[in-house]
Amino acid sequence: GDSVTQMEGPVTLSEEAFLTINCTYTATGYPSLFWYVQYPGEGLQLLLKATKADDKGSNKGFEATYRKETTSFHLEKGSVQVSDSAVYFCALSGLGNTPLVFGKGTRLSVIA
Amino acid sequence: DAGVIQSPRHEVTEMGQEVTLRCKPISGHDYLFWYRQTMMRGLELLIYFNNNVPIDDSGMPEDRFSAKMPNASFSTLKIQPSEPRDSAVYFCASRSSPGGDQLFFGSGTQLSVL
Questions:
Q1: Is there a contact between B13 and B87 (Cβ–Cβ < 8 Å)?
Q2: Using one digit for the tens of pLDDT, what is the confidence trace for B62-105?
Q3: Contacts of residue B107 in chain A, CB cutoff 8 Å?
């Protein structure tokens, strides 16, 4: 079945460092890909999405490019802030109206 | 819209007691999902509904867990009897199906079973 694998955390970075969180997927067909973010004490919220190969999703300085050839959707940000400390989930939507498939989440801590 | 509304935000109960978690999805959304989040197991899908009908409850851990959706604007997740291992954050999420693959999550219910 469909699955998402993302890098294990936690990730600890200093403010203004470059961030990469790796995500690869296995899916039949051509899924849409997502990054969700969960801030402390809150539910998950959509950060960005891409619906087809070579699409780039971006939001709040974060970017991810849908790479069909490597089945990847890595999340990047050029300069992280303390306020980016959260748990980040990679997800895909499969065929039809099946539920999103989530990765296990990667906890990011940014220190000043 | 107020978003997905869950209540209570925190619930502390004793082992053996019945626990009921509540969810109001976003108006117009026809899919509703219940998730459980723990440090050990991450985010788990428990059950989801489409147009108030349960579609897949294979994620419900035991018969102690049950979920209902009596109408389009309300759902409950019940645990009876509760056990300490049920302690987790329970999330409700909703979405609309026509081209709507974005999930909207509530703020969750932090359940502690002593």
A1: no
A2: 899 999 999 999 999 999 999 999 999 999 999 987 556 789 99
A3: 41-43
Which tokens sit at A50?
């891409």
Nearest CA in chain A to B110: A41
| Interatomic CA distance for residues B104 and A91, integer angstroms | 14
Nearest to B101 among A32, A43, A105 (CB): A32
- Where would I find the beta strands (DSSP E) of B39-114? 42-50, 53-56, 65-71, 74-79, 88-95, 104-105, 109-113
pLDDT tens digits, residue range A39-79?
999 999 999 999 999 999 999 999 999 999 999 999 999 99
Question: Cβ–Cβ of B45/A89 closer than 8 Å?
Answer: no
